[in-house]
Design a protein that fits this description.
The protein is an alpha+beta fold. About 30% of the residues lie in helices and about 25% in strands. The protein is built from four helices and five strands, in the order αββαααβββ. Strands 2-1-5-4-3 form a five-stranded antiparallel beta sheet.
């Protein structure tokens, strides 16, 4: 892929209204290594507050265990999944009870998710 195309994709991610994080599935704890501006707008977490952490930091005790189990099984299988999860903003206000959190594998090490507020 050319540098121009990479720059275009990067700008598209920056302009997207969907929050996107990319996690490194090859590392223990599957840490986030990239979060777009919409993720910050939706959750209130700056990229440097998300990078290096597992996405589970958005959850609280009332995040549905059944859906998390579904996500865990999909991750283990390297499969796509779409679940509705209760996540919390930086301010601890509920961020996405009604929006789907989608996760899909990307070949070679990364996967991405979008979450709607
Ligand atoms: C790319 C990616 C994105 C994820 N996004 C979210 C998310 O937005 N919200 C969330 O609660 N969990 C998200 N998860 C799920 C958690 O990281 C974790 O896999 C889930 O809590 C199940 O694992 P656990 O049982 O160790 O907590 C995401 C996982 C991956 C790999």
């Amino acid at each position: 892929m050319s540098l121009a195309m990479l720059n275009l994709f990067s700008r598209a991610l920056d302009c997207s209204s969907n929050g996107v994080v990319i996690s490194d599935m090859t590392l223990p704890g599957q840490p986030v290594f990239c979060a777009n501006p919409a993720f910050t707008r939706i959750t209130g977490f700056e990229p440097d507050e998300a990078i290096g952490r597992n996405c589970a930091f958005l959850q609280r005790d009332d995040t549905a265990r059944a859906e998390l189990g579904e996500l865990r099984r999909a991750i283990a299988a390297g499969a796509a999944a779409q679940v509705v999860l209760r996540n919390y903003r930086r301010t601890a206000r509920c961020s996405s009870t009604n929006g789907p959190s989608r996760r899909w594998p990307v070949p070679r090490a990364a996967s991405a998710t979008t979450s709607a507020s």
